[in-house]
Amino acid sequence: MEFAACRDWYLGSFPPGEVNRQRARTHDGLYRAYIVGESNTRAANHQIVREWRTMVRERADWEKYRERLLKQVQDFKKIKSAFVEEKAAFEVEKKSEEWGREGLKSKLQAAEELLSKERAKWKKVCEKDNQRMYAARSKITDLEAQIATLKGKVEEVEADKGHVEVASKDKDLAAKDVEIAELKRRLFEAIDKNESLEIDLEAERVKADTAEEAKKKAEEARDISTSALNVAQNNYAEAQSIVDTLVSESEWMRGRGVDAIANSILNATELDGAVAALIDASRAVGHRGVI
């Protein structure tokens, strides 16, 4: 006999046909039906108690699982707040890097402008130095020619001194000595002038070397600024990629992460399995109602 029929029998709500059928049964049949119904009732109660104990254990497991999920949610909130703080700090660092990059750009532009100005000045100085050196070289060449001419005249005068007559030797020698002294004076003046021109030429060469060193220093400063700018741009690109990744993960967690956690709690296979097992057990013992 089914459990529902026994329940209807106890409630006194048999249909008329069933009442007539039961009245037509013998005393032994009714007693047997009562015994079977009571046995089924007790078996169902015992099954419900066993399932309840199992459900209590599963409920405890589910509570532990729920606590773990709540802890994960709290950890996620902490991680999210830490992420927000790190993002703010990163924005500050990003702005500082942008300012530093702008400063490097301005320094690079200033260095390039200074280098262009120094290069123009250096070209002008080189042109002037070349003109001065050419003029000095021309003067030195002319003076060397004059010195050679004067030496030739001195040699001629000294050669002529040996061919003069003995009578006018002293007079001629005195005149020649005066002429030789004058020629030597002019020769020494030409030598001094030549040395001064060589000193000026050496000074111009030193100026040219100094301008070349200034040019090299300006080029080195430009190279250093360019390398620093490249390093700043690479750091900015890497930081931007990290920020994009973190933002995409945060957007995913904000859009679908919380829903996924809630769905995992509501659609937990352990809870569904416990409820399904309890329903199957109640149906196995003949209970058609909703537990």
TrEMBL record:
It comes from the Eukaryota. Keywords: Coiled coil. Residues 101-221 form a coiled coil. This is Uncharacterized protein.
